[in-house]
């Protein structure tokens, strides 16, 4: 039996270069490979070819996978489309109305603190309570409507981004696109298509 060192040291040997103590060139090493010059070299070449094939397959797999930074992309698309300004303008009037009501309520509550008991104070207290209830109802409706519209616009952006991702993936023959923020680790060989997707968003 040959040792691993003897086997490794004889990789470059030809058929006639078997080490001493290997009559007939048919002994086996401790790894189970037969010492036959041609057979040994052929097996080594097959092993090298197999490793090369694995490396090529790995590289090809990397070409089929891409990452995209959805968080960064969403922010840039939102800025690009001006969705924040759209929502702000849409609710600007109602926000101003609520601000005015709040200022008026604060003013009346300050007046109450300096008023003595009497019919005028009682009347103002009822007015403040009624106005506070109205303010609370309008503020709740405002927040509900704004949240609904924000979700609607967000869904529109997501749809546009997904459409762009699909287009870029098809154009570049990519089989799988993964959000970079959800991956614990990605090799530098994996392509980042965030910039390409941003250009494609319409």
Automatic annotation (TrEMBL):
Annotated Pfam families: OmpH
A GO term for molecular function: unfolded protein binding
Keywords carried by this UniProt record: Chaperone, Periplasm, Signal
Top-level taxon: Bacteria
UniProt record, GO biological process: protein stabilization
Cellular localization per UniProt: Periplasm
InterPro entries reported for this sequence: Chaperone_Skp (IPR005632), Skp_dom_sf (IPR024930)
GO cellular component: cytosol; periplasmic space
Gene3D superfamilies hit by this protein: Skp domain (3.30.910.20)
Location (main, coarse): periplasm
Function of the protein: Molecular chaperone that interacts specifically with outer membrane proteins, thus maintaining the solubility of early folding intermediates during passage through the periplasm.
Subunit organization: Homotrimer.
Family recorded in the similarity comment: Belongs to the Skp family.
Protein name, entry field: Chaperone protein Skp
Highest classification ranks of the organism: Bacteria, Pseudomonadati, Pseudomonadota, Gammaproteobacteria, Enterobacterales
């Amino acid at each position: 039996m040959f040792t691993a060192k003897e086997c490794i040291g004889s990789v470059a040997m030809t058929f006639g270069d078997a080490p001493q103590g290997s009559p007939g060139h048919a002994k086996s090493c401790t790894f189970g490979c037969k010492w036959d010059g041609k057979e040994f070299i052929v097996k080594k070449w097959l092993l090298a070819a197999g490793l090369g094939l694995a490396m090529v397959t790995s590289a090809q797999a990397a070409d089929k996978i891409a990452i995209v930074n959805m968080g960064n992309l969403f922010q840039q698309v939102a800025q690009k489309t001006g969705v924040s300004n759209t929502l702000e303008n849409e609710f600007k009037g109602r926000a101003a109305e609520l601000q005015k009501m709040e200022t008026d309520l604060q003013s009346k509550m300050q007046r109450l603190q300096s008023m003595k008991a009497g019919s005028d104070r009682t009347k103002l207290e009822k007015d403040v309570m009624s106005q506070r209830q109205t303010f609370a109802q309008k503020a709740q409706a405002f927040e509900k409507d704004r949240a609904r519209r924000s979700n609607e616009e967000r869904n529109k952006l997501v749809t546009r981004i997904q459409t762009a991702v699909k287009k870029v993936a098809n154009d570049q023959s990519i089989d799988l696109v993964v959000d970079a923020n959800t991956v614990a680790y990605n090799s530098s060989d994996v392509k980042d298509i965030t910039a390409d997707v941003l250009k494609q968003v319409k």
